[in-house]
Amino acid sequence: MLSNAxxxxxxxxxxxxxxxxxxxxxxxxxxxxxLNCYVGCAHGCAYCYARYMQRFHPHEExxxxxxxxxxxxxxxxxxxxxxxPPGAVFVSSACDAWQPLEAQRQLxxxxxRILLDHGFxxxxxxKSDLIxxxxxxxxxxxxxxxxxxxxxxxxxxxxxxxxxSPVERRVDLLRAAREAGIQTGIMFGPLLxxxxxxxxxxxxxxxxxxxxxxxxxxxxxxxxxxxxxxSVQALLRTHYPxxxxxxxxxxxxxVVRNAYLAALGERIAAAARRHRLERKLHSCx
Length: 285
Hints:
Largest sheet: 8 strands, mixed
Strand content: 15-25%
Shape: globular
Number of strands: 11
CATH superfamily: pyruvate-formate lyase- activating enzyme
CATH class: Alpha Beta
C-alpha cells in the first residue's frame, strides 16, 4: 500500500492547507537556526527523516501527500530578526524549501531575502533546481547552496526520490551556483545499502564532487529514524525484495550495523583520499 502511495504522489499534487505561524526561525543543531516555510514535502522521498513531523502535525495523508503552507512566514520572520542575533540559518530542516509549491508561493525566497538583509547567513540544502531562481538574491552574499545526491543512477534515484529534481539537474545547479560565485556543497546520503554504497559508487560520487569543485561535503548513512523503516521496507518489498532482510539486519542488528558502518567509513575515507577531498569531507555516519 505504501509503495503504491509513493507512485501516486509522483503524479498527484499534495493536499495543501494554509496555516498561520507565530514564529518561523528556530534554534537548531544544524546551524544556529533553521527555517521552514512549509510542513510536509511533495518530493516524497522514501527515506525522508522528516516524517517525524507528523507527530506534531497529524494528517490523514501519508508523508509526501500533504503540505502545510505558512502563509505569513515572511511577516513572522521580519518580527523575529529584529530581536534575534544574526547567525547561520539552515534552510530547511523539515521540508525541501524549494519543493514545487515554492515556485508560486515564493515564501522561501522572501524569507531568504529578509535573512540576508539582516545579516544572517543562509545555508540551503535542496533536491530541487528551482533554487536557481534565487541565485540573483544569493550572489555576493553569505550563502551556501548544497544539494542532496543519494546516487548518480537516475533509475535508482527516481524510485527513492519520486518527485525531486533529476540527479543531473542537481549537478547542473551546483555548477551554475559556482559560476555565480556562490559557495557549494553536496550531501551524499543517505547512502543506500547495497545500492549506492559500494566502492565504485562512492568513487563516482566523489569524482563528481571533485569535478564540481564543491566547498564542503557531507556523507550520511541510512538510519532507522521514526517512520522511515515502514516506508523503506515497502519500497524494498516492491522493487528489491531480496534486500528486505539484509536492510533489516543493517538497520536493527547492533553487531551487523557496527560492522557495516565501520566498513562504510573506510570506503568513504578511501574515496575522499583518492579524489583529494579529505579536507572538505564532514561525515555524518
